[in-house]
Amino acid sequence: MTSATGILGLRFMLLLLAQVVICNNINFFGFINPYIYIVFIFLFPIRDSRINLLLISFLLGIMVDIFSDSGGVHAAASVVLAYSRPLFLKASFGMLYEHQSVKFSNTDIGSLFGYVLLGTLVHHFVLFLLEVFNIYDIILILKKTLFSSIFTIILSVLIIILFSRNKK
Predict the structure, then answer these.
(1) Residues in a beta bridge with 32
(2) How far apart are CA 93 and CA 46, in angstroms?
(3) Separation CA 25–CA 162 (nearest Å)
(4) Alpha-carbon distances of 107 from 99, 116, 147, 163, 164, rounded to whole Å
(5) How far, in Å, CA of 47 to CA of 113, rounded?
(6) Residue 36 belongs to what H/E stretch?
(7) Which domain holds residue 128?
(8) Domain with 42 in it: what CATH number?
(9) What is the pLDDT of residues 76-117, one digit of tens each?
(10) HSE on the CB side for 33, CA within 13 Å?
């Protein structure tokens, strides 16, 4: 096992553990929850196989579903995020992504924020759309998406900055 694989495995376990032990127990105003496990999908190596990302994202999502008793909504939302990730990378990083030279430890905060924003909004919209599963409750879906996304984006960007930035 290489050190990169070990780091990925450790990141997977730590984010899953933080999600199910800490974040699943946070519930502001009855509908605002952070979903920091998606940081794993955001930081997955760009040069790695897309199939690996999809499979690992499904595994991560289904593990959150098992611990949350949520019936597969996290798995579906995680796979949608993983599948859409190249679009968000291209929109946020442009030519850096085209040349496969994006390094999250060296990117400017604006591009990183845009990337996390796009991914979180899509993930959360799919998550809450499947959770509520009633188009007549679209206002509730949008409200949950907006407020949980704000909380998740703030925490995700902080986690990425704290644990991915080069130490000077």
Answers:
(1) 28
(2) 12
(3) 23
(4) 14, 13, 26, 14, 10
(5) 21
(6) none
(7) 3-164
(8) 1.10.1760
(9) 999 999 999 999 998 888 876 666 667 777 778 888 899 999
(10) 19
